[in-house]
Write a structure and sequence with these properties.
Isopropylmalate Dehydrogenase, 2 domains, two-stranded antiparallel sheet, 12 helices, globular
Length: about 350
């Protein structure tokens, strides 16, 4: 038996909708150019499939992904033809919830000073990570509407926070801080918990108690707290101060769009959805971006950096480093799409990086 084939990591590739179908092929091209020992299998889950045969996730789909694959590379979901967005909910939230991918890891790194809208911020000034709780909060769709369509209508959206869910993401944050270094090799030192416990006292109280307890077990790590509104202001005023940020599902969603803006826009941001020891899923932070879909305009670097993150997670550090270096060089040489100042299309930017990686 071919031992190289045996040791290949199996990756499920789900481009999804809109620009997902454009950026993921570029990420795949770059993975292949890196020489990573992987076996890639494509899946057509997304709006086209749903409109064709009403399937969002085929029977046994999540069990199959967990059983047969080491990781999943995803593009984006969302299509104006599917008004309910049911396929996006069932596929993307389904993966996060049913595969219990509780840690959404979103690194915030500045590759080049020219990409940051803030004055005087250099790449060395911005290297933090947001760890977003990924299985609870307001995204569980718990709640309901009463007396809909009348003047007395009531809408209730429940914010679910379990002891288990809060504790495991906070523990993940401290372990991440202990384990991971910054890009320059220096150790991480601080974990900041972000909430709105002054207004959301019940859920916030739980987060506060658990944070105090878990931080007490890690005396060498500086524990900090900030309300989410203050954090937004501080992120724009001085992003140098951040290291590891841990927060709930909704605040994590919002502050990472802000953070993406500081990195050069949504097209640059990468993320992983992780359950340690299980099949994890990797996707760029951006959505399907219908207004620019099909125009060869979307920035593929968020997806390419996501692929690098996935390879590093699977133990292929050397390939990941090579890919990150090639993206950095593309940014420096302006071999990029228009959103970050270049003149290339999605395919051409992807090809440039792939060629660089294969050298
Ligand atoms: P979702 O809620 O699914 O995350 P969203 O509503 O936040 O999606 P996106 O689909 O991420 O929105 O995109 C919003 C806008 O950001 C797009 O219309 C586009 O202008 C810009 N954008 C997003 N991703 C990219 C990209 N890869 N390259 C260039 N521009 C992008």
């Amino acid at each position: 038996m071919d031992s190289k084939k045996e040791s290949r990591k199996r990756i499920a590739v789900i481009p999804g909708d809109g620009i997902g179908q454009e950026v993921i092929p570029q990420a795949v091209k770059v993975i292949q150019a890196s020489g990573a020992a992987v076996e890639l299998t494509d899946f057509d889950w997304g709006a086209d499939r749903y409109l064709r045969d009403q399937t969002t996730v085929p029977a046994d789909g999540f069990a199959m992904l967990g059983r047969d694959f080491d990781a999943i590379l995803v593009g984006a979901f969302g299509d104006p033809r599917v008004k309910t967005n049911i396929h996006a909910k069932e596929i993307l939230l389904g993966m996060r919830f049913k595969m219990d991918l509780y840690a959404n890891v979103r690194p915030v790194r500045l590759l080049d000073a020219a990409l940051c809208p803030l004055k005087g911020i250099e790449p060395r000034d911005m290297d933090f990570v947001v760890l977003r709780e990924n299985t609870e909060g307001v995204y569980t769709d718990a709640g309901g509407v009463f007396k809909q369509g009348t003047p007395d209508e009531i809408a209730i959206q429940e914010d679910i926070n379990t002891r288990k869910g809060v504790e495991r993401i906070i523990r993940y944050a401290f372990q991440y801080c202990e384990r991971e270094t910054k890009v320059d090799g220096s150790p991480r030192k601080k974990v900041l918990m972000c909430d709105k416990s002054n207004a959301m006292t019940h859920a916030g109280g739980l987060w506060q108690r658990v944070f105090k307890e878990v931080s007490g077990e890690h005396p060498r790590i500086t524990a900090q707290h900030m309300y989410v509104d203050a954090l937004c202001m501080q992120m724009v005023r001085d992003p140098r101060q951040f290291d590891v940020i841990v927060t709930n599902n909704m605040f994590g969603d919002i502050i990472t769009d802000l953070a993406a803006g500081l990195q050069g826009g949504l097209g640059m941001a990468a993320s992983g959805n992780i359950h340690p020891g299980r099949t994890s899923m990797f996707e760029p932070v951006h959505g399907s971006a219908p207004p620019i879909a099909g125009k060869n305009m979307a920035n593929p670097f968020g997806a390419i950096l996501t692929a690098a993150m996935m390879l590093a997670h699977l133990g292929m550090e050397a390939e990941a480093v090579k890919i990150e270096a090639a993206v950095l060089e593309a940014v420096r040489q302006k071999k990029t799409t228009q959103d970050i100042g270049g003149a290339l299309g999605t395919r051409e930017a992807g090809e440039w990086v792939a060629e660089r990686v294969s050298k």
